[in-house]
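Table S5 (text form). Sequence records supplied for joint modeling of the two-component complex.
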Amino acid sequence: MNLRRVRAVARKEFLHIRRDPRSLGMAIAIPMLMLMLFGYALTLDVDNVPIAVWDQSGSPESRELVSRFDGSRYFAVRLRATGYAEIERAIESGTVLAAVVVPRDFSSLLAGSRAAPVQFLIDGSDSNTASIALGYAEGVARAYSRDVAARAARIGGERSMPEPIEVRSRVWFNADRESKNYIIPGLIAVIMMVIAAMLTSLTVAKEWEQGTMEQLISTPVTSRELLLGKLVPYFALGMLDVVLAVGMGEFLFHVPLRGSLFLLFGMAAVFLAGGLSLGMLISIVTRSQLVASQLAIVLTFLPAFLLSGFVYAIGNMPVVIQGFTYAIPARYLVVILKGIYLKGVGITVLWMDAAMLAAFGAAVVALADRKFRKKLM
Amino acid sequence: MGERIRHMLVKEFLQLFRDPKLRRMVLLMPLVQVMVFGYAVTTDVRRVPTAVVDFDGSVSSRDLLSRFSASGYFRFVSRTRDPDEASRLLDEGKAGAILRIDEGFAQDLRAGRTALLQVIVDGTDSNTAGIVLDYSGRIAGEYSGQVLLARLSRLLGAVPPRKGIELVPRAWFNENLESRNFYVPGVIALIVMLITLTLSSMAVVREKEVGTIEQILVSPITPAEFILGKTLPFALVGYADVLMIAGIGVFWFDVPIRGSLPLLLLATTFYLMTTLGIGLFISTVSGTQQQAMMTVFFFYFPAVLLSGFMFPIANMPVLVQYLTYVNPLRYFLIVLRGIFLKGAGPETLWPQMAALLVMGLVTLYFTTRRFRKTLS
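The corresponding structure-token record, covering 753 residues in total, follows.
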């Protein structure tokens, strides 16, 4: 290994990057764009669900129930319907997500000893939103029933009664349950994987395609020097992205960073080295930029996005898929980043994930090195 | 003209399917993706690992806790009397929630006071945390309501207490609220866009990089013929992917398809016109394949995130909601979910179909014009 030659290759690669300002700009703009979108525009929180109401009873009791729906911050009555056909049209076209149907004999049913049925029709196609909205509706119904029962008791001569059980809830690590607080740490991992693979997966394939690889082979540079030299400038670029992302998280989105910044950058560097080498490996194996780009998508972008636990919690997946996620390096970085950011835990809790990350990096680097030497001979 | 297009098509088909690695990729990619999406992408929260700290240990506290485990939403991984142990489990991510009942729970309940149940959840995934809180509120609320009714009937003696209302929920289009039914149809749009974009964005720039574009320029082929020759093979790949993914969705994942297949194919045509148009446009304005790939992702990420695929558009800021109107993915998703889940026909879906058609025509027009400029 001759450092002078490594530096020469790095310089050549650096010139390549500088001469293509658009790719360079994109490598910085894509992470920023994704952070902005997730920080400002995207949320899975549900409130103000548009609903229709068909109040067939029109009694004071039913009006009170309807006003409770309208008054809660989770629902907004958008339509006063007068029949199922109207409700069906509104739900199908998406103007409302759900409908409350109060029966004609609501007040007399309420006075009886059985519970009065109130229909709640909901568009189930978005199951997540639907089940959250359903939970809200049940909360409204529960509170209403409780008050009806308590009021009836008061008529019977009793004073108000206390609620038998109170649920006192606390959310740890993210007290306001802000989705950006858990999405942005994970997003940094996803961005790094995507950028790393995009940057390097084409570089070696390009040299093959354009025939410049032969020229490189004829120079005294060894395969290992070539690999390392090519990695250096992209590593710098990738770390710049990390610094940018962490900075935006801190100053723009105010995501709490409770753990050690040093550990964060250290882990990011290990992951980046692995990710860049993986891109390089893809590039070495495929030799064609078109195939390399497709393979990079399947091997890096998709798993990092879907199987890392970044948005979709791994615990909710089928067991077989859960086992599969252990092979996804981004999974470990997501755990590490969320741990450092939100839980403020250190290496004593995260050592296992850190070790897996290091093992992944070492394995990919070794594999890329071996494959490359074989291809050159 | 027909002759020239035929030659162009033969060349493009040869190019696309000559490379065995590429051939495998084009077929394998959608398969891997739909499997991953079908299985991994789920927002159903079930069997949350839960640590239980029951200091009361009474019949009532056990009764309440057993309702949690019986609901299927909570899976007790630890029963302990040491709160630090429970916190440690939450720290390490081995538990997602802690249910804690302090001493005196049963006593409070008997005496007619308010008894406390503490629920502590891991907020690092705020969506799951919200759902877990919601479940616990429901389970405890139901128990509480029953206790209240029992108290009332004791007080009122012979007069039966009022029970209030009972919510009778019914979910349309997706009766069991399975998230798979929501996501799998959408996957079609995502995968088709990704494949057609990446393939077509490389198409022209590749010829530029290798230098074969000059040979095409000296041939008598016109820009429109060139664009057609470039798009048709990729469109075919797109159709194959749609059918394959739809087949896997229906037969493997049991996603219902209630609408018409011809309508789906027609919408696919309009959609493919847009994605291929955008891909070729990126290709004509890019100098290297690297640039083209970066540009594709610069377009693709926001397109997916602002489509309503995972994040409901209604929850976005109003300004961003307007932005989604120029996103072809948004329209195709509505069409797909409409056809698969709602059995919707052209009478409901025509605005989306029209939007896709207009976008397709506009992008293809600009691509052809842009390409003509590149030529001269």
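Note: Residues 182 and 298 of chain B are 26 Å apart (CA to CA).
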